[in-house]
Amino acid sequence: MKRFLTLLIACCAAITIWAVQVENTAGNLANLIDDTSITQLTVTGTIDARDFKFIADNLNNLTLLNLSNAHIVAYSNAKSPVFMSTTNYEENAIPITAFMGKKLRSVTLPTSTKKIGKAAFAGCSQLEYFTLPAEVEVIEPYAFSACDKLKSINFPTTIKELGEGAFSRCNGLKTVTINPNSSLIVGKDAFMDCSELASINLGENVTEIGPGAFAGCTSLKAPNFSDSHSITNIAEAAFAASGIEEINLANSNNLTSIGMWAFANTPLSNVTLPATLVSLGDGAFYYNLDLAQLNIPSGITSLNNYLFAGSNVSGMSQSLKNGITSIGDYAFYNTSATELTLPASIVYIGKQAMAGMTSLQKLTSKAVEVPELGEDVWLGVNQSSVPLSVPRGGYDAYIAAEQWKEFLITPPGVFGDVNQDGVVTSADITALYNYLLNDDMTFYETSDVNDDGNVTAADITIIYNILLSSKNISGRNKSVHNDNDKLLAQDFTIEAGESHTMDVALINTAGISAIQLDITMPQGLSITSVTVTQRANGMLLGYNEKEPGKWRILLTNATAMQGNNGTLFNIIVEADESFGGNNEISIDNIIAVEPNELVHFINDLTVAVGNTTGVKDINLDSAVNGPVDVYNMNGQLLRHNVERNEATQGLPSGIYIVGGKKVIVR
Q1: Which runs of E-coded beta strand occur in 433-513?
Q2: 3-state DSSP assignment of residue 93
Q3: In this predicted model, what pLDDT tens digit does every residue of 527-565 receive, in sequence order?
Q4: Strand locations in 13-72 (E)
Q5: Alpha helices of 491-545 — where are they, by DSSP H?
Q6: Domain ranges of the chain
Q7: Which residues of 303-317 are buried (b: 16+ CB within 10 A; e: fewer)?
Q8: Are 70 and 48 in contact (CB under 8 A)?
Q9: Three-class SS state of 430
Q10: What is the pLDDT of residues 215-234, one digit of tens each?
């Protein structure tokens, strides 16, 4: 019994030695701890760089450090550096290399900590329990590099700067969450080679992803960019050699550039780029073996060097839209595409841009003038067996041009034969309708009949002219923009459950035989039907909802519609319970075509839409007279100082403010 009590006392004594709690005055910690073999330490009071240095140099067995109730004060000694050559240490900052390589398993920092110094916890391979303080603003370079047991990191709203390599090579890190209110630049190599990192939520205020930020993160499949509205740049090699499979940047409306090699050597297959993008760096999608297709925004005018080299770009043809003027060196080198279509705007193709494309079975160039070529553009391609389709007006030049003439170039087919059946019939008009209204890409390559780089109602007009023998060869008339051409529609009010007929009129300066337009409806409104008026009697009408809330209307004929002024369409608009009112309908991409194929671009139009929810009928008391002002719902004065009983006479249906009260005119 006596022996047992002796052992128990000895164990208790050992425990008190291993776990120590002290109240410190800055610079005095060395005098408070006698046994440097302790494993747990809690410090209250004040501490400075000298105390951190004591811990770093002497407490080699420390696994738990609790500084939650301590306060870091500034320290300076120009004659005696503490860590490395540093002599000045800020308040509320963990010093440079303070715990580098220590055995710490759990660390709680002071709540007032604002900065974590360079390499402060680098190489702490046992660090498992750690939370960033709520006031941290700066994490300096390599602060947590190679902390292999860290599982997750949540960045507070205060974080502003994440230094180079801050969490690089943290092989156990699985989840990173950046608070939506954090305005942050993710620094160079910040999470490089974090092989287990599988989830990253960037938040809406992240402004930049630095070079190599997520490079080598092989478990990162689909980073969440859904709310990343503030990103302006994804820098060089940001996701290179990572495991990224898909990325949706559709809502990143400030993103203008993606740097060199940004997604190189990844299994990326699904990419959505924002319309704001104007720059794609060299090799941005280099050797993406699973990349079949992506949208190239209209702001991209050059495909840079190595951009798609080694990638699977089998569906890329339809993405190379008009506006791309040059293709850089090796841009499609060793790609597996079987077909490729070059847009009408292309003027230059660089050195070996398409070398090694041994799977190429069909090439189409829509450029009438033969593009200039660098050296060995199609090196390794069996050109003599690959058909090359060229515009009618460029055939003679292509068959004489070096590097082009080696292809199997056949004379252009029947002009206007969209569906490639050997003759021009109404079936070709149907093929164009299916393309314009339903995005049917079956005859995409032959749909641009007039070779202007766009498929519009003008191409349908050409087919009509061919069928009626009014014209055999397209004149390629230049487009015009005349402000006297106008589309008109009145503002209106509508309640949930109601429908309204929106009359759309056209004022045109010349005879018009075709018109197309896109209508974007706000939440809660939809189009149930479209009919033409007597003015367009006999014309062919088509309309379709091409994507949720966006409709295209197409009206064509061989001859001009009746008159130069009047309603063309009656559009039935219906409101459901989700319609909130006080919104607008947008009508854009308005193209009108003369019978001679001259295209008119017409200014966009917006139609204000309101509702009468919660407004009861107010009947004006004709017996109560007196002067009033009349306003519409946009605040425009319509009538001034008129008698109350005459205030709304002759006004169209709608809601008005009469003498300060809402009044409905039905």
Answers
A1: 486-488, 492-493, 499-507
A2: strand
A3: 999 999 999 888 888 888 988 899 989 888 877 788 888
A4: 19-24, 40-47, 64-66, 70-72
A5: none
A6: 167-282, 425-613, 627-665
A7: bbbbbbbbbbbbebb
A8: no
A9: helix
A10: 999 999 988 876 667 899 99
Amino acid (one-letter) located at 329: D
- With a CB cutoff of 8 Å and minimum separation 6, the contacts of 614 are none
Distance of CA 144 to CAs 105, 140, 265, Å?
13, 9, 26
Of the candidates 627, 507, 524, 526, the residue with the CA atom closest to the CA atom of residue 577: 524
Q: Which CATH superfamily is domain 167-282 in?
A: Ribonuclease Inhibitor (3.80.10.10)
Burial of 484: CB neighbours in 10 Å, binned 0-12, 13-18, 19+: exposed
Element (H, E) at 519: strand 514-520
Q: What is the DSSP letter of 124?
A: -
More confident residue, 250 or 191: 191
pTM, two decimal places: 0.66
CA trace torsion 179, 185, 191, 197 (10° rounding):
30
Largest Cα–Cα separation, the chain = 120
Q: Secondary structure of 468-483 in the HEC alphabet?
A: CCCCCCCCCCCCECCC
At 179, the amino acid letter reads: N
* First-to-final CA distance of the chain: 102
Among all chains, which residue has been given the structure tokens 């306060």? 71
Q: CB within 8 A of 7, min separation 6: which ones?
A: none
Q: What is the CATH number of domain 425-613?
A: 2.60.40.680
Q: Provide the b/e sequence for 137-163 (b: ≥16 CB within 10 Å).
A: bbbbbbbbbbbbbbeebebbebbeebb
Tell me what the mean pLDDT of segment 480-502 comes to: 87
User: Is the CB of residue 389 less than 8 Å from the CB of residue 402?
Assistant: no
Burial code of 35-70, b = ≥16 C-beta within 10 A, e = fewer? Answer: eeebebbbbbbbbbbbbbbbbbeebeebbbbbbbeb
Structure tokens at 528: 């149930």
| Model confidence pLDDT, tens digit, residues 30-49 | 999 989 999 999 999 999 99
Would you state the pLDDT for residue 172? 94
d(CA 93, CA 110): 10
Q: 508-523 as b/e, with b when 16 or more CB fall inside 10 Å?
A: bebebbbbbbbbbbbe
Q: Is the pLDDT of residue 386 over 50?
A: yes
**How far is the CA of 127 from the CAs of 96, 118, 420, in angstroms?**
17, 17, 68
- Beta pairing class for 408-409 and 387-389: parallel
Residue tagged 């055999």 (tokens)? 472
User: Pick the residue with more confidence: 466 or 74?
Assistant: 74
Mean pLDDT, rounded, for 168-184 = 87
List Cα–Cα distances, 601 to 179, 321, 598, 617, in angstroms. 45, 20, 10, 43
Query: d(Cα 186, Cα 567) in Å, to the nearest integer?
Result: 55
Determine the Cα–Cα distance for residues 168 and 144; give it in Å rounded to an integer.
7
> Which residue reads 């540093």 in tokens?
86
Taking all residues of the chain, what is their mean pLDDT, rounded to a whole number?
Answer: 86
Contact 588, 517 (CB under 8 A): yes
Q: Give the residues across from 348 on adjacent strands.
A: 326, 372
Per-residue pLDDT reduced to its tens digit, 607-640: 999 875 444 344 444 444 568 888 776 666 778 8
